[in-house]
Amino acid sequence: MFNIKRLFTVNVLTFAAVAVGVAFVFTPGQSLANEPAKIAHGGLLYDKWYGITEGDLPRKTHKAYPKSSKKKRKTTWRCKECHGWDYQGAKGAYGDKKNSHYTGIKGISASAGADPAKIIATLKDKNHNYTDDFLTKGEFEALALFVSKGQVDMPKIISADGKSVKGDVKKGAAYYDTICSGCHGLDGKKINDMPPVGKVANSNPWETLHKVRNGQPGEKMPALLALPAQISIDIVAYTQTLTQE
To answer: CA torsion angle for 199, 202, 206, 209 (degrees, to 10)?
Structure first.
């Protein structure tokens, strides 16, 4: 493990309470007073914790990561890398052995509703091996809250092949055009350093839904987690209709 602190952290959680037109911005060292904001921050940590924390960076491949799998070093420390964007692990999208993210490791869906204190204990056990050098007390709490209270039942929302999302496309269009298009453009192609939103939503709707609800690590992307989950689902359904070219 290479013991170094990140000197510059671009850690911004923009929490948009769209219903009242308020944006909440989180920066390192700031305490999150409300639970939805903590859960959404936990969703960012689940995505790529080492990209938004001031803790040590993992340099070696996680010891619990299968040697037969394809990722290396710090990537293997991302929660989503083993447990999946759909939270199903080996039973979900990452369960296909042809998938470059395949590990055969179980998901986190069974921990939905679990005591956050027990989840933290699991994160710190010998298998997971997350230490206080990586995450602060507040970050552990946020990540545990996400696992306990931030998951949605992906298999009931998105088909196994990812081609069908149980959302209202018409409603999703209205949400997307008013919430998302300012950054992504009406056609989903405004941001030059990422693929078109339509391509992302069709290739990985599980990741898309996770990010719509929790935001994008290091970016000023609204987290819609405090709003009814169906709004995010409708947005994903609509984004699958956008151009992929």
So the answer is: 70
